[in-house]
Design goal:
Length: 368
């Protein structure tokens, strides 16, 4: 009898302890990624899941198949499940105002990589310095062709940008275009298609097939007579893939066209090794997930972090706290911005493989 009473008392104390510490009642993080069809979001989703689970959170992750309606449903589902935090990379930054109204006072939202517009529900933004991504692409071209000492030489360039629905896309383009515009103005860089406006060079859904078709048209209309194309500046790797295919299959010239990209998708890294693409701007999404974790934990603990999140962290990478670059229409969104870097044939091993982000599978890198 005595031992039964003891077991009962023990059980009561144990449950009370669980309740007090919160163990057994793990908080849930809802993660919504745009699609599995663009490579990087698979990596982002996986890293984010691992990070939050490693700190004992439950994770409910959805990929929205690049369909806005699907993403709205995914978010509705997570709000209905009463998740404690939402981490969302939007497909269309303008399309979530309505659905996030339900989260506004209840569930904190982190806009992940892409800004979410016209809503107060977004408490923070975690991304890279997106303008700098474009600047790095532009500066790479500037250096490669020594544009400051062109000495009467001229070079032909075509631009390919991203999805107009993605707030990042015009920012990448502006970074690259602003860097190269002085040389276009001086006639050192020439754009034979005449397409220099973001809307003209944009690629719906960042789709490789769309970028392929547009470049095929440009080649047929402006380069069929043997005109040389020197540079295809692509704002990311999925568009670079389409553009590279168009150039490989349909370009009449025999010069090596310099092609830029962004992300370090495995197919593009293979193209870099094979000399078909010249560079990519790499963004360590594993680190983006680390920042999101520490920020998410702080928010769920009721804090409203600022600069100190960086100072108190154990991060071994650069990250800036920014309160004045990203306005989502309802005000400036507090942002943590990581730093992108240029990857070429020369530093690929050092920056991507030796650092552990990729491993070599024969001749080519694979993402871990
Ligand atoms: C991301 C890029 C990516 C693109 C297409 C952008 O919002 O920042 O890294 O290449 O989406 O997935």
């Amino acid at each position: 009898m005595k031992s039964k009473k003891f077991v009962f008392m023990f059980a009561v104390t144990f449950v009370a302890c669980l309740l007090m510490t919160g163990i057994g009642f793990a908080k849930t993080v809802g993660i919504v990624m745009p699609t599995k069809s663009l490579e990087r979001w698979n990596r982002d989703g996986e890293y984010l899941k691992q990070q939050f689970e490693s700190r004992g959170y439950d994770v409910n992750i959805r990929y929205s198949d690049n369909k806005i309606d699907q993403q709205v449903k995914d978010i509705e589902g997570l709000i209905a499940n009463n998740v404690d935090l939402l981490v969302i990379a939007p497909i269309n930054g303008l399309a979530l105002t309505q659905v996030l109204q339900d989260a506004e006072d209840e569930i904190p939202v982190i806009a992940y990589d892409r800004l979410i517009m016209n809503t107060k529900a977004v408490r923070y933004y975690v991304s890279f310095d997106n303008y700098k991504v474009g600047v790095l692409q532009g500066e790479f071209i500037k250096k490669m062709f020594d544009l400051d000492n062109a000495d009467g030489k001229t070079f032909n360039i075509e631009f390919t940008a991203g999805d107009p629905a993605d707030n990042n896309a015009p920012v990448f383009f502006a970074g690259a275009f602003d860097t190269l515009k002085p040389y276009i103005d001086k006639g050192i860089l020439v754009v034979p298609s005449g397409q220099t406006e973001f809307q003209q060079v944009a690629t719906k859904a960042w789709d490789s097939a769309v970028a392929l078709e547009r470049m095929q048209n440009i080649l047929a209309s402006h380069y069929a007579d043997g005109r040389v194309l020197d540079i295809a500046l692509c704002n990311n790797d999925s568009t670079a893939l389409g553009v590279t295919k168009a150039i490989t299959d349909d370009y009449a010239g025999d010069n090596k066209v310099i092609i830029t990209g962004q992300d370090g998708d495995v197919a593009n890294l293979a193209n870099i090794i094979d000399g078909k693409q010249t560079m990519t701007v790499y963004k360590a999404v594993a680190n983006e997930a680390v920042v999101t974790l520490d920020l998410g934990v702080a928010i769920m603990d009721g804090k409203e972090p600022g600069e100190e999140l960086i100072k108190d962290s154990k991060w071994d990478f650069a990250c800036a706290f920014d309160t004045e670059s990203y306005n989502n229409g309802k005000g400036f969104v507090k942002s943590y911005l990581l730093t992108p870097l240029i990857v070429t044939q020369e530093n690929l091993q050092k920056e991507l493989v030796d650092t552990g982000y990729y491993y070599m599978d024969g001749k080519y890198p694979k993402a871990k």
